[in-house]
Amino acid sequence: MTTWLTDVFDAPKPVIAMLHLSALPGDPGYDTKAGIAAVVARAQRELEALQAGGVDGVMISNEFSLPYLTKTEPITAISMARVIAELLPSLSVPYGVNVLWDGRASIDLAVATGAQWVREIFTGVYASDFGLWNTNIGEVARHRHRIGADDVRLLFNIVPESARYLGDRSLKSITESTVFATLPDAICVSGLTAGAPTDTQALKVVKDAAANVPVFVNTGVKAHNVAEQLAIADGAVVGTYFKEDGAFENQASLARVKELMDAVQEFRATSPL
């Protein structure tokens, strides 16, 4: 299947590595003594490990801005733009951004930093750990057009982490109507939380229902299951597995990045793509 992925990435079934930024100004966990310089320094170390390990792209997110807001404060995207500006001279792979959990702010940040895609919850209404979570894709799509961001690809997470869809609808039905009515550039399928396994059957249901829209496995990808997941999905987003000891809060490990990417290269070499 030929899609926009072939224009952006050099390899088939790309693996996008998450670059999780430390807590930012305004976040409860922000280290005011170390300041933004410490956030930049950690991000630079992580980027070096991810790129040296052979990932196909990176997605920069405010993963440690816990607990998340569904409408973020301006300081969050502003701080992320500062960090990304410092990373740009070192970035050698395609990159995207994700301001959790704010689709409009994510698109704004992409325009400001030259990012090629964003990932967010753009559709649906959910009961979540962060309260009642509503979306307005029509408003977001119009905002995207107004600010000249039509070339910023939108990755829709239709199985959001830490939340449950309020409508009594099947995953197949949600996928079909999302593709028809809201025009996603890709669909992401997740487990319960960051690092939690994505159900293979759910992934297949979405892939079968998504027509020509690319589908990414969004959480729980590991060296031992990446071939199984990529046999179904068009790409993968990987965060937690790349961390030291596979622990969410740790920094990226070059050895773990290479381990998973070696498995990906083996899959690409032995499977029809």
UniProtKB/TrEMBL annotation:
Database matches in SUPFAM superfamilies: Ribulose-phoshate binding barrel (SSF51366)
Superkingdom of origin organism: Bacteria
Signal sequence range: none
InterPro entries attached to this UniProt entry: BtpA, RibuloseP-bd_barrel
Assigned protein family: Belongs to the BtpA family.
Protein's name in the database: Sgc region protein SgcQ
